[in-house]
Design the sequence.
């Protein structure tokens, strides 16, 4: 094929079809008036070579006809019909005489990666679709804790309140000399001994341990007896009103900050236990004689410091017994308060009712506002050494 | 040329990541032709106006730090002084750093009332579930309700900041920290002791830096690999725990405790090792690992926070914050530790992080906000209200007081009566000998 009419447009595939195209392109770009320079179509040439009987004049005619037929009427990719002045297909944008070419797709911009060590061809404030996908929001769609479970958990709180009320009741009796001092003494000693027996039974202690416990209690009682006069005089100068206010505050601290989960080891006194010591010593200063002071402090230590230890071991094994004791003590206290004033009994029952039935409802209501956001910035759970 | 004011509670003579960031950013911005001043509170014996390298002007303002080097947040106490400084230096942009620096936050609010553009950079990550985080986030939300643009040091930090302060993420740019690589050149000949694989740990020994993990990892690795030698630098409340653990396992000849390492000696310690171990529990952007990579050490780190985005995979091994996982990844790293291409790492890191790049990207932020419109007072009132119905009213009162105070200050100390500041001769940077500053280069 004569190369002087081949233009520089080259398509990618190397086919016979391309050769044909090149031929057609070359023909179209030349001056159409110059018929003498028309080349023979390669296929016709081949045809003629194979079929040598056809005359050369017919070959010439065939090629001329093919030229003027305007081979490229429709785009083979999408069927777009070329008009006369069209240079390229409107839809696929291929040139009219280069329909075998591949469309060169736009060079894809490099994907944004969440890295800092390379400068990426994006703005510094570019936002990807992965933005904030590592954040887990826990909206607590479940209804929160079970109502009945919460009610059963309030028994701890009721027990603490009962202890306080019982203590205050016995203090009141002592203050107004309604009950004999000796009776109170026997009562509290008996209570202490029963507590100790229960403790040893539940913990299955051996005789040696029980005896050593008795010994330590004996030492403790003697120390208290020694310090009773001191305790009486410590807060005597305070006015009555001060005593009542401080006592109420200390009782509130005791109830609110008490360790209901029994996590601590009982080797150190908690804030709540210090508060119990505080209010017992405050109240003891109003009493009349040393025996009463000793009794009140002994009672407070027993109720607020030693009974929780007992309570923990009982709760682990005899949970229902504990609940029954709770219930009986609540009712008994309420009824005994009736002797003194209706208002107090009402208040007591009202408190118990509120704590047991109304506050769980409040917790369940609050759960709808619980909103924890967790993400890659949270500190992981790591075992801590102290 | 933009006149920039950088504000933070934390600056020289206190040494740390934030302080370094501010200093280097100031220097590089000055090299690009802007004017930079820095405002902090006074340190012991360091008060008043000081000039640092190349004429970087630092105002050590007479406010006493209340707790952990942070000035007490009194809304009106700093207005008059700040106004005077900003007016006489003819500032255009006020840039505050660090979320726990309330001095910066307070001055950011005043700068908004005085009519300057504000930018805030966040350097740390905060969770949402702590009691401390609630309060810090609320205050941050208040301070950043009107900031023009925010900058964070990593992509996770950007997400964190946008959630904490309720900012539009299009207004937060990610500009990572950088490291001065010329100060952290590798030197494999300095690896000491010889014939062992040395693992270096340098951090403040606190809970947040994962010292509890380290206590578990050191004995396990020492037992498993007899050729390992640990070098632990740094001081803190948890130092005793590591010492106890070392004594308990009898590893005194395999672990070296260096105590507190001063800033200029860090490179000497780093260069002694083959592997750098980072066990921190939360990090926005860990500069320590970049320094270590620049010194040619292979890094093994926990995959928390923004650490994952900092270095490419061939330089780091990531582990979960679990002692077993860290031991596994160290076990993979120890055999290859001696063949690490230190100089190649250094060159790679030098290309990745440089302060000039940080300054350039910060400059684009400044140019962007300088062309944005100033908000009207009504716009600011609406922004106040967005903090909540009741808190918003309170903030509104503060805003009004602010404007009234500025008005009164304008009457008492008008602009034309302010003294002009001294200008540091910019020729100094170009020709130091002319001013008598001779540089002797001894390698």
Sequence:
């Amino acid at each position: 094929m004569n190369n002087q009419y081949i233009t520089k447009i080259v398509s990618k595939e190397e086919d016979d079809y391309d050769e044909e195209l090149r031929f057609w392109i070359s023909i179209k770009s030349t001056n159409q008036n110059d018929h003498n320079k028309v080349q023979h179509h390669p296929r016709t040439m081949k045809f003629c070579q194979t079929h040598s009987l056809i005359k050369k004049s017919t070959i010439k005619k065939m090629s001329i006809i093919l030229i003027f037929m305007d081979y490229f009427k429709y785009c083979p990719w999408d069927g777009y019909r070329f008009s006369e002045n069209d240079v390229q297909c409107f839809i696929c944008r291929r040139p009219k005489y280069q329909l075998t070419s591949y469309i060169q797709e736009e060079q894809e911009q490099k994907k944004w990666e969440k890295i800092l060590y390379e400068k990426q061809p994006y703005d510094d404030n570019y936002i990807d679709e992965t933005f904030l996908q590592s954040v887990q929001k826990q909206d607590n769609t479940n209804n929160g804790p079970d109502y009945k479970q919460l009610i059963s958990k309030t028994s701890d709180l009721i027990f603490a309140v009962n202890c306080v009320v019982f203590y205050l009741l016995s203090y009141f009796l002592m203050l107004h000399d309604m009950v004999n001092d000796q009776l109170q003494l026997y009562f509290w000693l008996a209570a202490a001994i029963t507590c100790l027996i229960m403790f040893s039974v539940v913990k299955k202690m051996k005789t040696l341990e029980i005896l050593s416990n008795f010994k330590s209690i004996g030492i403790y009682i003697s120390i208290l007896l020694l310090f009773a006069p001191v305790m009486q005089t410590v807060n005597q100068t305070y006015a009555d009103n001060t005593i009542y206010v401080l006592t109420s505050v200390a009782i509130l601290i005791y109830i609110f900050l008490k360790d209901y989960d029994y996590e601590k080891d009982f080797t150190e006194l908690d804030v709540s236990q210090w508060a119990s010591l505080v209010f017992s010593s405050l109240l003891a200063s109003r009493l009349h004689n040393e025996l009463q002071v000793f009794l009140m402090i002994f009672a407070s230590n027993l109720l607020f410091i030693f009974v929780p230890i007992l309570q923990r071991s009982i709760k682990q094994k005899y949970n229902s017994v504990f609940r029954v004791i709770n219930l009986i003590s609540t009712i008994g206290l309420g009824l005994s308060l009736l002797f003194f004033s209706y208002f107090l009994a009402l208040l007591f029952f009202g408190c118990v009712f509120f704590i047991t039935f109304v506050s769980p409802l409040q917790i369940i209501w609050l759960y709808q506002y619980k909103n924890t956001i967790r993400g890659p910035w949270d500190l992981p759970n790591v075992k801590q050494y102290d | 040329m933009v006149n920039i004011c950088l504000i933070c509670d934390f600056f020289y003579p206190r040494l740390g990541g934030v302080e370094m960031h501010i200093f280097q950013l100031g220097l590089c911005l000055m090299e690009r032709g802007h004017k930079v001043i820095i405002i902090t509170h006074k340190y012991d014996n360091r008060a008043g106006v000081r000039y640092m390298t190349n004429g970087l002007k630092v105002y050590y303002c007479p406010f006493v730090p209340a707790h952990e080097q942070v000035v007490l947040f009194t809304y009106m106490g700093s207005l008059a002084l700040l106004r005077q400084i900003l007016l006489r230096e003819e500032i255009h942009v006020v840039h505050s750093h660090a979320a726990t620096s309330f001095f910066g936050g307070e001055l950011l609010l005043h700068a908004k009332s005085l009519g300057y553009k504000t930018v805030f950079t966040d350097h740390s990550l905060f969770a949402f579930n702590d009691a401390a985080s609630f309060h810090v986030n609320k205050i941050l939300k208040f301070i950043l309700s009107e900031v023009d643009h925010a900058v964070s040091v990593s992509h996770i930090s950007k997400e964190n900041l946008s959630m904490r302060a309720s900012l539009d993420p299009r207004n937060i740019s990610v500009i990572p920290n950088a490291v001065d690589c010329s100060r952290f050149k590798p030197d494999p000949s300095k690896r000491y002791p010889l014939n062992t694989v040395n693992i270096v740990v340098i951090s403040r020994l606190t809970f947040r830096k994962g010292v509890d993990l380290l206590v578990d990892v050191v004995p396990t690795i020492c037992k498993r690999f007899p050729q390992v030698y640990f070098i632990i630098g740094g001081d803190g409340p948890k130092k005793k725990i590591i010492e106890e653990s070392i004594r308990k396992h009898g590893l005194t000849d395999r672990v070296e405790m260096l105590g507190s390492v001063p800033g200029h000696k860090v490179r000497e310690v780093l260069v002694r090792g083959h592997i750098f171990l980072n066990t921190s529990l939360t990090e926005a952007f860990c500069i320590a690992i970049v320094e270590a990579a620049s010194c040619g050490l292979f890094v093994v780190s926990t995959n928390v926070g923004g650490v994952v985005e900092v270095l490419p995979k061939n330089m780091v091994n990531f582990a979960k914050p679990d002692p077993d996982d860290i031991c596994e990844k160290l076990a993979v790293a120890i055999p290859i530790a001696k063949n690490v291409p230190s100089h190649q790492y250094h060159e790679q890191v030098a290309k990745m992080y440089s302060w000039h790049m940080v300054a350039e990207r910060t400059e684009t932020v400044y140019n962007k906000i300088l062309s944005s419109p100033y908000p009207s007072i009504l716009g600011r009132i609406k922004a106040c209200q967005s903090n909540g119905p009741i808190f918003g009213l309170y903030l509104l009162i503060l805003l009004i007081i602010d404007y009234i105070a500025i008005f009164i200050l304008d009457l008492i100390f008008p602009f034309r009566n302010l003294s002009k500041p001294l200008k540091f001769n910019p020729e100094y940077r170009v020709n130091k000998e002319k001013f008598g500053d001779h540089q002797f280069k001894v390698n």
